[in-house]
Amino acid sequence: MDRFGRRTLLKAGLGVGVGLGLKPELALCQDNPASSRPGEGDLLVKAGDAMKNPLGPGDIREGARPILAWAMDPADGTVRSGSRLNQVLLVRLDQEELSPETRLRAVEGIVAYTAICTHTGCEVDDWLPPEQLLHCPCHGSRFDPRDSGKVVDGEAPRALPALPLKLDNGRLVVGGSFTARVGFQTA
Ligand code: FES
């Protein structure tokens, strides 16, 4: 099939997805493993790592700025970087400071959250070391990674969805789906 044929098929698939009430990106996600949301058992790799080395706890330093990562299918090495909504922040904190709920999703103090701000979808790529808070540079929302990504201040209407982690053979592995829908929405 030539590329125009594939494009036609893709459009047709999208049309069916939208017809079923799915958003276009969701329809695409269901066809494309690279765009599928991180799922249980996925490994994690640092963004930009061409070698796709799975991350372990030793790769995340306590108190350092978060690492931007992608989930990776352990079966075929597909990195789920096909959607910006799949960007994951990994940060290591003092285990004793984690809320009970957050501790359940953490591995050795390492927690994972979406990198997509719940306000209008900017990337939460700023880190405030003294307060140990995630900071969105667009409108200044701040989130507490020690307490389920809750909004500390700013206009974000809800917490950053968390991605549960677990440890498997010394590697960080996704323990389940995001705790809430990733992306932004009205309050
Ligand atoms: S997009 Fe993050 S605070 Fe507005």
Describe this structure in words.
This protein is of the alpha+beta class and 187 residues long. It has two domains: 1-31; 34-174, Rieske [2Fe-2S] iron-sulphur domain (Rieske Iron-sulfur Protein, 3-layer Sandwich), CATH 2.102.10. Helix content is 16%, strand content 22%. It has three helices and ten strands, in the order ααβββαβββββββ. The protein has helices spanning 3-19, 24-31, 100-104, and strands at 43-46, 67-72, 88-92, 110-114, 126-128, 133-135, 142-144, 150-153, 165-168, 171-174. The strands form three sheets. Strands 1-2-3-4 form a four-stranded antiparallel β-sheet, with no helix packed on it. Strands 5-6-7-8 form a four-stranded antiparallel β-sheet, with no helix packed on it. A hairpin with a 5-residue loop joins strand 7 and strand 8. Helix 1 packs across helix 2 (24-31). The chain starts with a helix and ends in a 13-residue tail after the last strand. 32% of the residues are buried. It binds FE2/S2 (inorganic) cluster (FES). FE2/S2 (inorganic) cluster binds next to loops.
